[in-house]
Amino acid sequence: MIVPSIDILGGRAVQLRGGRHPVLEVGNPEALAEKLSRAGEIAVVDLDAALGKGSNTEIIRRIIAKHPCRVGGGIRSKELALEYLDLGARAVMIGTKASPEFLADFPAERLIAALDTNKEKIMVEGWTKETGADLFARIEELKPYVGGFLVTTIDREGEMNGFDFERAEAIVKAASGRRVTFAGGASGGKEGAAQIARLDALGADVQAGTALATGALSLARAFSAPLSSDRPDGLWPTTVCDEGGRLLGLVYSDLESLDAAFESGRGVYKSRSRGLWKKGETSGNRQDLIRADLDCDRDCIRFTVRQNGKGFCHLGRRNCFDNGFGIEKLSRTVEARFKEAPEGSYTRRLFSDEGLLASKLREEADELAKASGAAEAAFEAADLIYFSLVKAQTEGAGLRDIEAELERRSYKVQRRPGNAKPGYEDAEGGNRWTGIH
């Protein structure tokens, strides 16, 4: 699988090329992250911090807030590692400070040990200092403390001259169950795609920057490299889901449609009868592509999209099976009523009378707290969810924003105790509410 890489130096996206070529200027890192993240999780590396010459922390914070990413480069304090993890980074890549003592305080599944090698010797501090440590010895030492390894071959970095597969297979075997990502050497074109597919079959990923930045390897070709199809036409089944993972329908993709989707940031597919199909071009029910993912068997794609207009289905429904369900369906009703509720209606009163809405929220929260039994708890929770969605809508937030916040919280490492605020304790001194954060 491909992991697109963004190296940041002096606030700009660049690519280092093995120390033998000038730095390759790539552009605005945030704009680049917007595009590359359409192919899934990206890697973001702070070169200034790695070299001890400053940092690009503010840029990285903004990227973490918007896109699934792993973050590395100069993370040499536990405070910074925790900050990135709590902000929602899927993992932090630790290089210079990677030691059992440093790593032991973090959840292993959120750690990637970055092992930068030059002629098989481990380099640290932005490739400027040789440690003399052996690569395989370091893997053996660190693997109880991490969920994966990033192995960069410095002498191949930016050269686009491929990977040493015998060495790669030995590294994957040594990592024994920890996912290995290889950087340095990704080639262009069909050859580069074949290398990605071969490493994916070994259970490893490819972190690529230069090949993608120069256009030698397209994002679509890199993403689709591990895919297979048993269809006579070679098309890849593609499930389309909304931001919450709810299925909208089934379509098909090929390399041409993937390339168009990644370049435009739109839902673009391959129609079996009409060729390239840009969803919403005639109906107005346009889709914004958030990201694409491969399934575990590498024979299906998932597109996560923001669906606009009436919905995905040509019958004017939310999806190809029905018109939605539960909280998502309710949220669309609330949004429509916010725009269309007639004057004098109760709904309009809720949207326009802050005091009334605040009172209803307190009332429903109190009734849920006092509920007894599953049926009553579900009934009162449904009431509270409705008024919560109304409140969020009046402030400009929808269900997608609430779900995004919940997703962000799921990656927090540091937890608050969840004690009730003053004034919310019960009469016996306990807590009426306990926060789930």
TrEMBL record:
One of its GO terms (molecular function) is ATP binding. Residues 413-437 are annotated as: Disordered. It is an enzyme of class 3 (hydrolase). Pathway: Amino-acid biosynthesis; L-histidine biosynthesis; L-histidine from 5-phospho-alpha-D-ribose 1-diphosphate: step 2/9; Amino-acid biosynthesis; L-histidine biosynthesis; L-histidine from 5-phospho-alpha-D-ribose 1-diphosphate: step 3/9. InterPro entries: Aldolase_TIM, His_biosynth, HisE, PRib-ATP_PPHydrolase-like, PRib_AMP_CycHydrolase_dom, PRib_AMP_CycHydrolase_sf, RibuloseP-bd_barrel. Keywords: Amino-acid biosynthesis, ATP-binding, Histidine biosynthesis, Hydrolase, Multifunctional enzyme, Nucleotide-binding. Its EC number is 3.6.1.31. It catalyses: 1-(5-phospho-beta-D-ribosyl)-5'-AMP + H2O = 1-(5-phospho-beta-D-ribosyl)-5-[(5-phospho-beta-D-ribosylamino)methylideneamino]imidazole-4-carboxamide; 1-(5-phospho-beta-D-ribosyl)-ATP + H2O = 1-(5-phospho-beta-D-ribosyl)-5'-AMP + diphosphate + H(+). One of its GO terms (biological process) is L-histidine biosynthetic process. This is Histidine biosynthesis bifunctional protein HisIE. It comes from bioreactor metagenome. The gene is hisI_5.
